[in-house]
Specification:
Elements: H1 19-29, H2 40-51, H3 54-59, E1 66-72, E2 80-83, E3 89-95, H4 101-113, H5 125-138, H6 141-154
Parallel strand pairs: 1-3
Antiparallel strand pairs: 2-3
């Protein structure tokens, strides 16, 4: 493998320095991606059940409850989430082929963090902490433990005191 193709030797994007390592940690923790949604309607129903549920409201009281889920084509190279500046609405775009629990929960964590993720970028401390909270609740304690261990091994910062 050439160093150009090896993410461990690439320079991190200064605006999002933890992104590539965090993605690797998710893959290490749950390589299968977890639950796969066969139909887009199932995926939408899952997202709505999360964001309209009591756990979401209690855990992320400032997160949007109005979340639109849109599908991207198979040619798209990534999934994404966007929260409006006022924090009342969000959109999650999921690319075809990425209808798995790890991707969906990742994007929901972006929604929970909101429009202003903090000084260390979109995949920084606030996001990593929120992602751990979401994994514990939505993917289970074993998956959470594996992700937390991967974060610790790879130096991903998170706020331990928020994890209870």
């Amino acid at each position: 493998m050439s160093s150009a193709a090896d993410p461990s030797t690439q320079q991190a994007d200064p605006s999002d320095p933890h992104r590539e390592v965090l993605y690797r940690c998710e893959h290490q923790a749950l390589p299968s991606g977890g639950r796969r949604f066969r139909r887009f309607g199932e995926l939408e129903q899952f997202v709505q059940s999360v964001v309209l549920g009591a756990w979401w409201e209690a855990t992320f009281p400032d997160a949007p409850l109005e979340v639109t889920v849109l599908r991207r084509s198979a040619g798209a190279t990534f999934s994404a989430a966007h929260v409006e500046a006022d924090g009342t609405e969000a959109v999650v775009w999921l690319r075809a082929g990425s209808w798995d629990a790890v991707t969906v929960v990742h994007e929901l964590a972006h929604v929970a963090v909101g429009a202003h993720p903090g000084p260390d970028g979109p995949h920084g401390t606030a996001f990593a902490t929120t992602l751990l909270v979401c994994w514990r609740e939505l993917l289970g304690v074993q998956a959470y433990g594996a992700l937390r261990s991967a974060f610790d091994t790879n130096g991903i910062p998170y706020r331990r005191e928020r994890l209870g």
